[in-house]
Amino acid sequence: MSLLPAPRSTYQLLLDAAHTWPDAVATQWIPDPARFRDALTWTYAELAGRVTRIANALTALGLRRADAVTLCGVNTSMLYASTLAAQAVGIAAPVNPVLGAEDLTQLMRRTGSRLVVAAGPELDEARWTRLLAVCAAVDVRAVLVLRPDAAMGAPPPLPADTGMLVAYLDDVAAGHTADRLVGAQPPAPDDLAAFVHTGGTTGAPKVAAHTHANELACARGIALATGLAPGEAMLGGLPLFHVNALLVTGLAPMFGGQRVVWSGPAGYRDPDLYARFWQIVEYYRIAAMSAVPTVYATLSRVPVDADISSLRLPVVGASPLPPSVREDFAAHTGRRLLEGYGLTEAACATTFTPPGEERIGSVGRVLAGQRMKAVRIGADGSWTDRAPGEAGVLAIGGPAVFAGYVTDPALGRPRVSRDGVVRDGWLNTGDLGIVDPDGYVHLTGRAKDLIIRGGHNIDPRVIEDGLLSNPAVAAVAAVGQPDRHSGEVPIAYVVPADPDRFDEDELHAWAATTIGEPAARPKRIHQLAEIPVTAVGKQFKPALVADAAARAVADTLADAGISVRDVSASHQNGRLVVTVTGADPEQVREAVAGFALTVTTLP
What we know:
The chain has 603 residues and is α/β, with parallel strands linked by helices. The chain contains 16 helices and 32 strands. The N and C termini lie far apart (69 Å).
C-alpha cells in the first residue's frame, strides 16, 4: 500500500493530497439522514481551497501562530474546514457544543481564544444565544457563524450591538485568496496544532496540546493499519470536537486518498440515523467506521435491510467492549468488531486490531511509529519495566505523545507542561494492562479507578467482567463507596437486560461464583436505566462515585435516626462534596465522623 510521505504539518498534508488526487472526492456531508442521498461533496482540491481561504480570513482578523481559535458546533463541512484552517495559521481549540456556559467560559479562558467559529441560530438557537453571552464575557474579538450544509436562501440577521464582530463565515472568507497562505508562514512540525479537551471521565476536562508532528505521526499510523485503498469510503459519525473524528476520519484518510462520508450534524447521536444506517453503508459503499460500544449495541438491534458487503473495518474503542456487544454485532451483521485503544494525550490511537487477528480481551497491537510497555511504579515514583505478559501501568512512547496540558491561560499565550505525566518520553496512561509476548495489548483496568478497601487494591474491571458474564446484565460499572471502616467498599451499578426482572440477591449470588476474590464482590448492586457516559460514549464514573457517596451518607444518617430532606453529592474544584439539606448540622457532623468526605449542610 502506498501512502503520501510524512509532511511537515497537517496543512501540508492537505495540500499534498490535493496535488496527488485533485479530482478525487475528499468529503461528503449528509445534511439530514432522512435525505441521505443528498450529500454535499468536496474534492480534495476544493477542500484545500476552502481551508486556505478560511485560514487567510483568520489571519486578516489578527490570528497568529500561537493564538487559539475556539470551534463550537455540530458536524458541518465548514466546521471541519475551519478546524484545518485554524491549524494552518494558529491553533484549533474545538469544544463540545453541549457544555454549559461555565465550562465553555473556563475552556476559552484556558486556551486564550479571541476568535470563535460557531454554529449559528439555524443549527441551534438556544446554544447560539448562550455562546454569544460567553463570548462577550471572555472578550472575544470575532465570532464567525456557520450555516447548515443544506442552508437555502438568506440567513437570519445577526446581532450588531455585541461589541465584537459577528458575521457569517462564508461572507468573511469570500474575498480571500484560496491558492496560498497570505501573511502567515506554513506551520513547522513542532508548532502547536490543537488544544483538545479530554473526555472528562474523571471530573473537569483537561486541555491537551498537540503539535503537528504528534497528529501526523498518529494519523499516518492509522492509515497504515487500516490499509484502505484510494477512493474507499470511511463513515464519520463522532463529533468533531473529539480527537477520533479529527484524526481517524479527518486526517488519516488524506494519507491514502480515501473518501469520508459524514453522517449528519449530530452523527451517531441522531436517533433518526439508525433507521437508514445500513442503507447509507450500501449507498456510499462504506468500508470502515469508528464508533463507541454503545453505537454498535444499537446497530445490533437495527434490521440489516441493505447490502453491507463493503463494510470490513468496524472499529470500536473509547470504552471497554462488553462481550455481549461483540457477540451480538457479529451474529447480527457477520462482521467482527476490531478493537483499538488510544488517548487524547497520545494524539488519538495507539493500538489497532487487524482483520482476522482478533483476540478476545485484546485491544490490538501498537500502531507503526509508536511504542508501548507495562511498568511498575514504585512508592518512590520509580519506574521498572515489566516483562512481556506481566501486568503493570501501560506507558506509550514515540512521536505521538502530546506536548503537554495547557497550564497557563494568562495573556492569551497558554503554556503547556508534561510534568508528572511524561517520564523520559514515556506517557503514563493511567491504565492497567499487559503487553503479551506477541505484542498484543490487554487492558485490565484503570489505575485511578482502583477501589482501595482497607489497603487492598481492587480492580473494578474484575467486578464488571464478573457481572457482565450474566446474561441478565446489559451494562455495569463498579466504583468505590466511602466506608468509615475500610475507606472504600466496592458497589456496582447495573443496567438489566430486562428492567422488570432485576434481582439484586440473584446478582450477589452470581458474583459469589464469578468473582473469585471475596473482597472484590460488591457490597451493593443498584439498578440503573443507563450508565452515565460522556459525549463520546465513555463511562462517566464521577457521577456514580458521587451517587455512591450520597447513598453512604444517607444510609448512615438514617441508621442514626436523623431525618433529612435531601442528600446530594457533586465534584467541586476537584473535591467530592456531599450536601445534606434539612438536618441539624451538629448531628450530621457527629453521624458522619470517620468518613473521608467533605460534608456540608443546608437549612
